[in-house]
Amino acid sequence: MMRGSLREQPAVTRLSSFPPLRSMKASYWNSIATPHWMTGSALGERCSQRRSIDSRWGFIRNRRVSGVSYRMHLNQASHAMLSRLKSTRRQFLGAMTATCATAPWLGEAQIKAAPTDSIPLIDCHLHINHFDRTVEDTIRHMDATGTSKAFVLPLETGEGGVLLRSETVLHAFHAHKDRVIPFCQTDIRRADVLQRIRAYHLLGCRGIGEQKEHLPLDDRRVERIIALCDELDWPITIHFQDGEKGFNQGLAQHLERYLKKYKKVRIIGHAQTWWAHISADVPDPAKSLYPKGPVKSGGVIDKLMTDYPNLYGDMSAGSGYNALSRDEEFTMGFIERHPRQLLFGSDCPCYDGQGKNFRGMCYSKQLQSFLKRIVKDPGTLRNILHDNALRAVGEKVPA
Q1: Which of 219, 119, 122, 202 is nearest to 166 (CA)?
Q2: Cβ(290)–Cβ(272) under 8 Å?
Q3: What is the pLDDT of residue 160?
Q4: Which of 319, 331, 269, 338 is nearest to 294 (CA)?
Q5: N or C terminus: fewer CB in 10 A for the chain?
Q6: Whole-model pTM over 0.85
């Protein structure tokens, strides 16, 4: 992700009727109204039913109980939640289908073509509020860049320079169902993080991202989120940045263990350390996070993507473009080896698709132009610009 304003979206662009999930206590769920856009719907009923489930979690947290009693109530809460998730999954999907009937999810939607090509474009990495950009500003950016849909990624911790709540992303999805593919994110250091993510799952989110806290990759709290994505059959976009003040440090040492253990989750690699490992020659992150010059074959991500088809690469931001453009001959071979695992993404903060407010540069148009120049096979180009995004969120690719 790029740095931007720490200020959250203006109130007009927030989901004001759905306040932050500060707790999973029954008192909290009973104190809020069902969002106005769910009122009277089956989806709204699911939200109401959550409250009775979460009362058990509130009991556990707010009372001192014996070990036996604690385990009993914990088991009851877990069973209630899992039973509800299983028994209502089909009804929930039906409700979502009805809610979004005027705007089908992905493959069937009428979508705009990229400016110079007939391939519809899905951007796998977009934030709403770069430089105080609003939801409508973001949609205008998508229009200007020929982007049909985007994975819109929140960052609830504010670490790294941007604060964007999952509720704001859900509001954007409600307002633009045919354009926004909502992801969720919350501070994974919270004790109730798994319950919160399950709630976002019920509300229609399609994955986790951008996963970005100051924690090493082998931290147990990182693993439990990856394990949850594996259970939910979800993607997770992870910001890899080694160094003292980095995020998810230790890609080369720890990522393969997760890929071996969790086969269903689609891990989407992003940012400086991810793309530095396109080469076998990786500089000290304290000296350079954007290495230049020819790529040395045998890089970690090249090998891991060969061995694990559920590992994807997010081409967005300066880190992606730098890695792909530093050695075009190598990049052409890299793309040929991984045609179904690379995702077009921009992480672009500009307002207008022309680089206004961002040094005259638009990451989206820059990468589109680059890919259309070096990718010669039309099928591979379509994979990168569109089809691989569908695969990442578990959608069938239209024939």
Answers
A1: 202
A2: yes
A3: 63
A4: 331
A5: C
A6: no
